[in-house]
Amino acid sequence: SGAKPLYLSLSFIIEEGFPRDELNKIVDSVQKAAQEAGVEIVTGDTKVVHRGSADKLFINTAGVGIIPEGVDISGGKARLGDKVILSGTIGDHGIAVLSQREGLSFSTQLESDCAPLGSLVAKMLGASSDIHCLRDPTRGGLATTLNELAKQSRGARITGGQSLCIERI
């Protein structure tokens, strides 16, 4: 959306018996990430549920920010000739999450590409007022994100080669 992030809510649903040292490590990590993103955690909630009622721990967040004047970014605004620019590698986050969930190990170290994007977005908006849409490909990756953009912009075709171009169909 191009919004400047300001505040975050943070809620936990913790299964009875979840190790306190693991929770402390998670809270420290969340605090560090919030500081890096320049947001304040201003509200939240914690619930402890009976053993077996949750998958150890659920974390829920919601963010609040402001959209700068003159910024109007959405997936429905993709148009003919727009460039798709990637700010990082493809698939790192997905494979890192999958390997943790499934207990997979690889010969190389996997790292999620999770990072605060607020300052990057602010720099992009400062460099150009002609940005139509922004996306952070998460679940489903790049292919799903491109498909969503095509649908939201009411029909587009993504063509490939060394670069991708959006073409109206």
Automatic annotation (TrEMBL):
Residue ranges occupied by any PurM-like C-terminal domain in the UniProt entry: 81-159
Cross-referenced InterPro entries: HypE, PurM-like_C_dom, PurM-like_C_sf, PurM-like_N, PurM-like_N_sf
BP term (GO), one: protein maturation
Domain PurM-like N-terminal: 2-67
Pfam families reported for this sequence: AIRS, AIRS_C
Family, similarity comment: Belongs to the HypE family.
Descriptive protein name: Hydrogenase expression/formation protein HypE
